[in-house]
Write a structure and sequence with these properties.
Radius of gyration: 20 Å
Number of domains: 1
Mean pLDDT: 77
Distance between the termini: 10 Å
Oligomer: single chain
Shape: globular
Number of strands: 0
Strand content: under 5%
Helix content: over 70%
């Protein structure tokens, strides 16, 4: 069977699995919609679409480091496709990084595309660390749980920093990474004869060429970091609007910390499964910081279901559009 057909079937199955696993939330979702302020829901939809456009602007800025130029419209499609792949293949975002290289090929070498996506994760983590003190201060002045939130913030910060250091160490150990890539390629070759070791070697070579360019021109990465911060702020604002849709104005600090902790939890949960970990982390943080369980669960459910509805259908369309031709 051709690789394109295998990936298309895999995408269909993955989308069906996401719908199946969220089926129990859909019933409650439609009930919740009856009590929502529709004009705010429409605003949430528009902002969510804008967040993918922000991702496209990030990609454009990071590709400039390599002197590559790709139309923003294509980068927008790539952002949606990569998001879809990350949902159906829980690999801490590596699957999405690989698929982005397919979207941007052949204008951008695959290794550079993968590096651009990995840098998005890294800069988003740095943006999380930047915003965490803001949420911490907002909570500290209004919520009487100083020691608990201080401890949680410290642990979360250390987790992000430790993960960043681990990734840097792995990248610096070039030979180890090459051996792992060869091992993985041999395993995947059993699924499709079109997968070649030579292509893997080329990918790694392009990756390290791009990595050396980036380390040599660090200041050129600053605009990408700026777009990453804006993206996180927009996502937090979207989640806050979900509470306003229920007619509830909550402490912005609680919303910030819940979103950040949920993302940290999903980093590790995403190795095994991409559905549910984010929701549990977000709901648990909201409740721990004093919000009623019903409100926390309702806001989280509406936010995530809207996120799925907005992102996955167009994501699947662009996933299908950029599947390999052979």
């Amino acid at each position: 069977m051709k690789l394109r057909n295998i990936l298309f079937i895999f995408g269909i199955l993955g989308l069906a699995l996401v719908v199946l696993l969220n089926g129990h939330q859909l019933d409650s979702f439609w009930l919740l919609l009856k009590s929502l302020r529709w004009y705010i829901v429409i605003l949430i939809v528009l902002i969510q679409l804008a967040s993918y456009y922000l991702n496209a602007l990030y990609y454009r800025s990071i590709l400039k480091v390599f002197s590559r130029s790709v139309k923003v419209e294509r980068l927008f499609e790539g952002a949606l496709a990569a998001n879809f792949v990350n949902y159906i293949i829980p690999t801490m975002g590596l699957a999405g990084a690989g698929y982005l290289s397919q979207v941007l090929s052949p204008e951008v070498p695959r290794g550079e595309s993968v590096l651009a996506q990995l840098m998005r994760y890294a800069l988003s983590g740095l943006a999380v660390l930047t915003l965490m003190p803001v949420g911490f201060i907002l909570i500290l002045f209004t919520v009487h749980s100083g020691q608990d939130i201080t401890r949680a913030t410290l642990v979360a910060s250390l987790v992000v920093i430790a993960l960043a250091i681990l990734v840097i160490i792995l990248i610096e150990r070039e030979m180890t990474l090459r051996r792992f890539a060869n091992w993985l390629t041999l395993r995947l070759k059993r699924l499709s004869a079109s997968i070649k070791i030579e292509s893997t070697h080329k990918l790694i070579n392009e990756f390290y060429i791009g990595y050396r360019i980036m380390t040599k021109h660090k200041r050129k990465v600053l605009p990408s970091y700026g777009w990453s911060i804006i993206y996180i702020v927009v996502e937090v604002a979207t989640f806050y609007l979900t509470f306003l849709a229920f007619g509830k104005a909550v402490n912005p600090g609680i919303v910030i910390m819940a979103y950040l902790f949920a993302n940290i939890a999903s980093i590790f949960g995403g190795v095994i499964f991409s559905i549910g970990v984010f929701e549990i982390g977000m709901t648990g943080t909201l409740v721990a910081l004093g919000l009623p369980f019903v409100l926390a669960l309702s806001a989280t459910t509406v936010y995530r279901i809207l996120n799925l509805i907005i992102g996955l259908p167009p994501g699947f369309y662009f996933y299908k559009k950029y599947l390999p031709k052979t």
